[in-house]
Amino acid sequence: MKSLLIIDVQNGFLNGQDKLVEDTVKLAKLFKDNNDLVIAMKHIEENENDPIYFESDGANIPDKILENVDEVIEKRYPISFKETNLDDVLKSHNIKELYITGFNMEFCILFTSISAADRGYEVTVIEDLCGTVNGEDAYEMPGLDIVDFLGTVMDWSGVMENKYLEELEFSKDL
Length: 174
Known about the structure:
Rossmann fold; 6 helices; alpha/beta
């Protein structure tokens, strides 16, 4: 069985990335139509100055995504498995394949993907449904496309796959 893991697609990260939300909703509906599990991870921050401070609208997951989610799991670390029940939920549904989308590619997506692969899940990161709030200036690397660079590294690892939405066999109808 498959699961779609939507990591930290929260208002404080989106900054007008409507297409990412719309495409994530379409994919989540496809997973639901196939009776596959859809999980949203919600990062909780206790720092009032953080864009996803837990008491702010920035921490909220858009309703159109929530409508297509089976379970929301809160997390406090970049690794979605750390101090959460994610692994238990996946095992209880006999999940073997994990498809990952969301924010931030260089933190939560990367660390969760590695942790999932280490736990024996077959991991696919859907690059065009991943984003970051950082850019080339954050890492002092002019011209760096963080999402594409990390997607390439993950794919080259041979441990996990990096795909674009149109490359997924089951998403041809989107």
